[in-house]
Structure formats: C-alpha cells, structure tokens
Specification:
Elements: E1 5-8, E2 13-16, E3 24-29, H1 44-58, E4 62-67, H2 85-93, H3 97-114, H4 130-142, E5 146-149, E6 152-155, H5 157-163, H6 174-181, E7 200-205, E8 214-216, E9 219-223, H7 227-237, E10 241-247, H8 251-266, E11 271-277, E12 280-282, E13 285-286, H9 297-302, H10 314-322, E14 330-332, H11 334-353, H12 368-379, H13 384-402, H14 410-427, H15 435-458, H16 462-474, E15 477-482, E16 485-490
Parallel strand pairs: 3-4, 3-10, 10-11, 12-14
Antiparallel strand pairs: 1-2, 5-6, 6-7, 7-9, 8-9, 12-13, 15-16
Helix pairs in contact: 2-3, 4-7, 7-8, 10-11, 11-13, 12-13, 15-16
The protein binds one RNA strand of 74 nucleotides through strand 6, helix 6, strand 7, helix 8 and strand 13.
Length: 491
RNA sequence: GGUCGGAUGGCCGAGCGGCUAGGCAGAGGUCUGCAAAACCUUUUACACCGGUUCGAAUCCGGUUCCGACCUCCA
C-alpha cells in the first residue's frame, strides 16, 4: 500500500504524510461552540476528520484525536454589546450558562453518534482549561509578544512579525490587513485600546454583568478567541503535533492566530499538517447560524423544514457528505440528498448479496484491480468520491455474478466481502443500522393501515376500525383522529 | 478595497494535457398477471475570449459571474 498524500494548507501543496512519532498520530480538530443546536454546517468537518482518523487507524497508526468544546469567551458576531455568546443565550432562556452549554454539548454529541462519528479520545472544554490559557498568555507576555491594557491582554502582531511570519498560513500580510481594516465590516469594542488593528485579544477584561469570568493576573476576565485551542492542543498533544483540522472559514484569523500564539509561547510550529475542509452551501451560500439559513440536524432527520418534503437519515447525510471531496464546496438540496440516498441503498443491497453469492472453482471477474484503485484514491488526499465510485463498480460486478453471468471463487468472494466491509463500514464509517429505510418502511405501513381504517370508518365498519386502533395501541402506537385525518405516534 | 477559492451535462459531483468518472433523474430493455422493486443498456458537459500544444474541461493571459475570509463569531 502506498503512502497517504494530504493537502497541507501550510505551504498550499500536497505532501506525503509522515507522523512525528512512528505509528502514532496526534490530531486536533476545532470543535463546536455550544450555543445552539447542531445544524448541517456543523456536520461536514466531523465526518471528514472522522474518515481521516479511521483511515489512519486502518493504516495501523495509533491516533489520539482531540476535539474541543468551546463553552466560554466568544462574542456574538452581529451588532451587540460584546456579551459572551453563552451568556446572551442564557439570559434569553433563563438558565445557567453552563446548563445551556451542557445541553447543546449533549445535542451535538447525540448528532455525532447518529452520524457514526467516533467520539474524540479527549474532548476538553475551554472552561476547564482557564489556568492553562492564563499560563500560555503569561508566557507570551514574557516573550514580549503581548501587552496588557486596562485588564485586557492583546497579542502584538507587529512585534511578532519582526521575527516570524504572521500570515504564513492564510497568505495574508500585515499591510493588506491594515488596508482591509478600514472597510468597517464590523465595529468592535476595545479597538482603541490596541496598538494596531491587527492585534487580537488573548484575554478580555470582564464587565460586571459577565457571568462567565475568571480571576487572572490582569484582573477578572475571560479568555480571547483563539487561545483555548493553542493551550489545549499543547496540553494533550504536545507543543508540536501532526494534524490540525478545521473548516476553511477558520483559516483566518483563528488558525493564523493559533500559530502565532504557539510559536510565541513554545517556539514551535504547533501542527505539521493543517487540513481544512470546505463548507456545505445552500443556494450557493455557506450555512451558518449568523446567516440564519441553517438546517438543524434534527430538522433534516425528521423532515421538519420548508426545503424538505420528508426526513433523511443520518446515514444518507454521511454518504452525501462523502460523495464530495472535502476541499470542495458541497451544495445542499433535497434533490441531491435524494440521489445520494438511492445510490446508497443500491450499494448496500449489493453488499448484502455478497455472502450468498454462488461460488465456482474459477473466477471470471476481478476484485484486485478495484481494491488497489480504492486505496490509491484514499491515499490521494482522501478522495472519497472516487472511492465510492469504485464501490459502485464493485456493486455492478456483484450483480453480474448474482445474475449468473460471471463467476467468483470462494477466496475471492471472501476477499470481496472483507474489502467492502473494511472500506464502506470501517473507513468511510457508514453506520450499519438501517435507520433510513426502517423509518420509511414504518411510515409506509402506517399510511397503509390508516388508509384501510379510514375506508372502514367510511363504511361504518367500526368493529374493524376499533380493532385496528386497539391492536396498534397494544403494539405501542397510538392513533389520533381529527378532522384532517388520522395521525399516529409511537408511545 | 485586500487575500484565497470556484464556474463541468436536468441535479449532485470526480477528473487537472490524449484514455467511459460515479450517483440520481430521463430513455430503452429483462423480470412480472399488472405494478413496484431489482438488474442490464444508454442520451445530454466542461462560463466566455484569446494563446501554448500534434492534441486542453485540464496549461498560460484576459473577461464575466459566484463564494469564503479580512482580528477580538468556531
């Protein structure tokens, strides 16, 4: 098997993957800010990095996968008074901030479980690592790359730029940034405190209304945007580790700032490989809470959305995401989802045929050519759409054998079975449970039953209609009659 | 205004110098009492204008559209 080639945003080119420590990989992925329910935009990164993680594990690497939970310190983007996001929601909902964070964390993890995304090896919370963040900020101050003003601490980009390259990841330079700063894309509190508009906050002084605040050498406050990832990745993966993943929208400023912070504090490039996935778009625009065009994961599963005529299972969603390369945008629509679902079902029905395929002494079909093609595609910057295309070719061959037009040997059939399971379930991580069709089947059956019962009622055959209702009740399903028709629910 | 990335058939989406991507939809067929499902076969592309080349969706230049980001929203 040849080696994995991965696109490194740092350097903007494809590079062979080599781990720092033989057969071990440290991987950090920026996790969610838990201030809202998970939507489609949250789903792609976890799936993509889950496949990368699974593939590295498949290649016998021992992977430590760290994904944080951001539960403090971030400000609301759209015009407001700079309240902490979590605090704002908490006021709205009359709950403790941590209660809100916990609830959304649970929802997020539930969605990840549904999508068969493996839980991280470590899932650190920003709120649980304030001390580490303070220590790192102090270290940056000590090195001369940060300064304190009125209880807040800012990173000194120009001081840093004298020795290092601020912009090495995003390809920006400080002059451009200052030129662009005049566009008034946003007005931020505390701008006038900074030496330069390029400087970013490491620690913010808290106003008395802030519920979430911690004691620091600079007074009461809360950590800035970017420091948590730097502090936590260093704590659990070391000052230098293998892979840092995230969405392309995080490239600047978040990841650029992480690099600057880590180099300042540790004198080390934090990550060897920076891997960025592209966004899911809807009508050509990225899906984000701030744009208010998000489809919640639960809305997708249940079909409760104006763009959806019915629900789609997590399995379909995962397949849909993997049918596009992670670095390209993926445009969402029900039509596209429908296409993925049908293809996926066809593929799975072929997989289901393998075990019962009739075998012969000699085989007239091949498997090895596809097998190597699949791993070539995986090694080629995780080209999952190509992998899936090859899987469809395999499905076609399975059907041909099943139709008796070609033959397969026992060994080859076992090989095929193993290959399909390795690739489809273990590496692509497709959920094994048949969530989609079982739910759809139930819907169909229930529609049939309620139709029959409606006819019975029209014919005043209440004996039959009541019998149906009673039997369903006994089976745990309640029917509810109304003027509009009959609805049902599972008790 | 700056930085970066896109424009592929009805839809989603690979390819990145010559070779059918793939899926869905459409068409034809096999099967079937009729359907459905399943399976087989198959039509339709490379934003525009120049250039390089024996040969370009793929390389170069220009044009037009679209998107992301631009520091205290991951």
């Amino acid at each position: 098997m040849s080696e994995l080639i991965i696109y490194n945003t740092l350097g903007r080119k494809l590079e062979p993957f080599k781990s720092l420590v033989p057969q071990k990989v440290g991987m950090y992925v920026c996790g969610p800010t838990v201030y809202g329910p998970p939507h489609l935009g949250h789903v792609r990164g976890p799936i993509v990095f889950d496949v990368l993680r699974r593939y590295l594990s498949f290649k016998d690497y021992q992977v430590r996968f760290v994904r944080n939970i951001t539960d403090v310190g971030h400000l609301v983007g759209d015009a407001d008074e700079g309240e902490d996001k979590l605090q704002k929601q908490a006021k709205l909902e009359q709950l403790e901030p941590m209660e809100v964070a916990q609830s959304y964390t649970d929802q997020y993890n539930w969605a990840m479980d549904q999508l068969n995304v493996q839980r991280p090896s470590i899932e650190p919370k920003a709120s649980g690592h304030i001390i580490e963040q303070i220590e790192m900020i102090q270290s940056i101050i000590d090195k001369g790359y940060a300064y304190e003003v009125n209880g807040s601490v800012y990173f000194d980009v120009s001081a840093y730029s004298k020795k290092h390259n601020y912009g090495e990841l995003s390809g920006r330079n400080t002059e451009d940034l200052i030129a662009g700063a005049g566009n008034e894309s946003r007005s931020l509190e505390g701008q006038e405190e900074k030496k330069s508009p390029n400087d970013f906050a490491l620690w913010k002084q808290a106003t008395p209304e802030h519920i979430m605040q911690w004691t620091s050498p600079w007074g009461k406050g809360y950590p800035g945007w970017h420091i948590e990832c730097s502090a936590m990745s260093a704590k659990y993966l070391g000052e230098s580790f293998d892979i840092h993943g995230g969405g392309m929208d995080l490239l600047f400023p978040h990841h650029e700032c992480e690099i600057a912070q880590s180099i300042s504090a540790h004198n080390n490039e934090p990550a060897r490989y920076w891997v960025h996935h592209n966004m899911i778009t809807i009508n050509g625009q990225k899906m984000a809470k701030s744009l208010n065009n998000g489809i919640k994961v639960t809305e997708l599963f249940e079909g409760q959305h104006p763009l959806l005529s019915r629900g789609f299972g997590p399995k379909t969603l995962r397949f849909f995401v993997l049918q596009a390369h992670y670095r390209g945008t993926l445009d969402f629509s029900e039509e596209a989802l429908l296409a993925s679902e049908k293809g996926m079902k066809r593929l799975e029905s072929a997989i289901g045929l393998i075990k019962n395929l009739k075998t012969s002494d000699s085989a007239t079909i091949k498997v090895d050519d596809i097998k190597s093609a699949i791993f070539d595609a995986l090694n080629d910057d995780l080209n999952t759409p190509i992998v899936i295309a090859h899987l469809f070719e395999l499905a076609r061959r399975i059907q041909i054998v099943n139709d008796g037009k070609e033959t397969i040997s026992i060994e080859m059939r076992d090989d095929l079975d193993q290959l399909m399971h390795q690739v489809y379930y273990n590496i692509l991580g497709m959920p094994k449970i048949n969530d989609d069709s079982s739910q759809n089947n139930l819907n169909e059956v229930m529609n049939l039953v309620t139709d029959i019962r409606s006819s019975a009622k029209i014919e005043k055959n209440y004996e039959l209609s009541d019998m149906i209702r009673d039997r369903l009740k006994a089976a745990g399903i309640t029917l509810m009659d109304s003027k509009e028709g009959t609805t049902w629910k599972i008790d």
